[in-house]
Input
Amino acid sequence: MFHPGYWAAAYLNSLEKEGAGFEDSFAMLGILSSWAKSLPGEVFGCSAAQKIETLIRRGVAEKKLSGGEEIAVRFLILMIKKNRFRYIDTVIDEIKRSLDNKNRVLSVSAEYALPPGGDFEFRIKEAVKKQTGAHEVKYSGKTRPELIGGYRLRIGDTVIDASILSRLSKLEDQLITGADWTGPAADGGK
Output
């Protein structure tokens, strides 16, 4: 069984041990993996790794690699040699999550029925920073008309669903199961 967290931790530990720059190395790993994925045929095994390493070394021969970039090259070659290259995107995602955790960066995605007006994005970022102690908040938003109204936020692994669609679904479930509903009309509107 493949464990992307193990590979991500090994990569980050190598960078830390060498005192290498995380950002340059992570950028180089992304560039190299995109390039390797664009190669014709499947990329796996020792012979493929040797060919790719030769191509990479030729391609970056004039550029003096930093320690982190060199670790990215070696890491990619190792994944190819160990027939694990097909998991590179999962490992890169895990590395990104680990770096964000280390740097106290939190991702927030918002979905809303209609584009919010004013300073919605700013207010969400500030509220998340205040509540979580995050150093930085990365925000992305998307219009989803099927929500009917309201919004849905994903903050890290937490989802806050304040959409009308969600409320209607809960009401439907309660009506189907016959559960007591204590809404405004339940007491006859009194």
